[in-house]
Amino acid sequence: MREAAFVIVGIVVGLVWLAIWTCVLHFFSVTPFGQGKERRERLKRLGKLKYVLVVGVLGSGFSFALAMITIDFVSHRWAGLVSELAKFVFLAIFFGLIMGLWNWQGVRDPVPFPPDYGSRK
Asked: Cα–Cα distance between 73 and 95 in angstroms, integer?
């Protein structure tokens, strides 16, 4: 039962970070969530690299890593500050890159199939 409480605390901390990060992005007129053509155009202007770094690494990756590190701290299973910091950086970058690249597929223009190569003259 204690382990479930640790996991719940970690999830809550991760969700709090996502809420804070979404407010910060909204303040700078970058809304990564929701629908709309205007939102999609703003995110495309941001570019793939910046999108992956801002939304993926600093958003989802940071949240996931923060949740994992919080679970370690709350359960008293941490192996030292340097070890936890290395774990945090690795998880934030790895998970953030995966989530950022995965979510970029919804932002970019879809590729038509079959491809339209234009008219032949």
From this structure: 20
89 in a structural domain? yes
Number of domains in the chain: 1
121 belongs to a structural domain: no
pLDDT, one tens digit per residue, over 28-43 is 766 666 666 777 777 7
Q: How many CB atoms lie within 10 A of CB 34?
A: 7
* pTM tops 0.85, yes or no: no
Range of the domain at 82: 2-107
Q: Is residue 112 part of a domain?
A: no
